[in-house]
Amino acid sequence: MSIVESTLQRLKAARGAEPDKAPGAAPAPVEPVPIARVRARIPAPVRWPAQLPAADFDPARLQAAGLAAPERFTSRLRDDFRAIRREVVAASEERLAATGQTVGPIAVVTSSAPGEGKSYTALNLALSIAGQSIQDVLIIDADLVKRTISEACNLGERPGLTELLAHPTASFLDYAYPTPVPRLRVLPAGSRAHAARDLFAPARVESLFEAIRAAMAEHIVIVDTPPILISSDTAALTDVAGQVLLVVRAGKSLHDAVRDAVGHIRKTLPVGVILNDWSPLLPSEKKTYTSYDQYAR
């Protein structure tokens, strides 16, 4: 079972630098933040329609699909994804140095090749963010071939992304299924009948994701996509993203493939690299993990 074993490494060049401070200048006094301002930072929940049935988050089905780790890894898994979610949420609120625009809520999760753990990462990251009960999280299954998340949630042929791309006037709010996890919704891949069409034309994708970005401005959207080197659909989705998470699997991902994958992503986008399925082979690393387990007790 895959375990995320590293924190995100972001492209610092995409972020604005802090203004220089005068030499010897005294630090500015820190003023207490009024309670009203603290509460104002917690966004109001999205007003989702109530008529959709809940997605099926059956633990056995999630484990069978490779989307859930065994119970013995739960504590470490949660800690790993806490580190990743801090980076993702913080990045969504930053402004890009190149454009001055806010990164925004949409994070695309992809990989260079199949089998590197992108769907696993996408779902567990969404669960971690939703678990804070601060922001709504929408996870979109945009892998129209594998449909891993849709199938694992028993939403295989439910209307979803393909219907929204085929009918630009439809609202994504009507296709986002609730889950047993509060503030987490799933937008499935949709009908295979629509998937055969060329739905990922830039105009269709931009129109849909502009609506999603506006409605979810203070929240988070996680998009699970096909591997970027084998699907042109992924490039269309990264073009409308605010940030990209590239999943790399230890012992499997090829260096040249990862480099090519990064080359397919727009240079102005912040990119996070997640090392998946890492194994502590070195004695020093094994000692670190032993210490962590002892500390957890």
Order of helices and strands: HHHEHEHHEEHHEHEHEH
Count of helical regions: 11
- What is the topology, as strand order, of the major beta sheet? 3-4-2-5-1-6-7
Beta-strand segment tally: 7
**What share of residues is helical?**
25-40%
| Main sheet record | 7 strands, mixed
CATH topology: Rossmann fold
Kindly provide the name of the CATH class. Alpha Beta
Strand percent estimate = 5-15%
Shape: globular
Mean model confidence by pLDDT: 81
Structural class: alpha/beta
Low-confidence stretches: 1-39, 282-286, 288-297
- Any idea what the radius of gyration is? 20 Å
Distance between the termini: 23 Å
Number of self-contained structural domains: 1
Under the CATH scheme, the architecture is 3-Layer(aba) Sandwich
- Assembly annotation: single chain
CATH superfamily membership, which one?
A: P-loop containing nucleotide triphosphate hydrolases
Brief synopsis:
The longest helix is centred in the first third of the chain and has 19 residues.
Structure description:
Strands 3-4-2-5-1-6-7 form a seven-stranded mixed sheet, with helices on both faces. The chain is built from eleven helices and seven strands. The protein is of the alpha/beta class. It has one domain: Rossmann fold (3-Layer(aba) Sandwich), CATH 3.40.50.
What's the layout of helices and strands?
Layout: H1 35-40, H2 59-64, H3 74-92, E1 106-111, H4 118-130, E2 137-141, H5 148-152, H6 161-166, E3 177-178, E4 184-187, H7 192-195, H8 202-215, E5 220-224, H9 232-238, E6 243-249, H10 255-263, E7 271-276, H11 283-296
Helix pairs in contact: 3-4
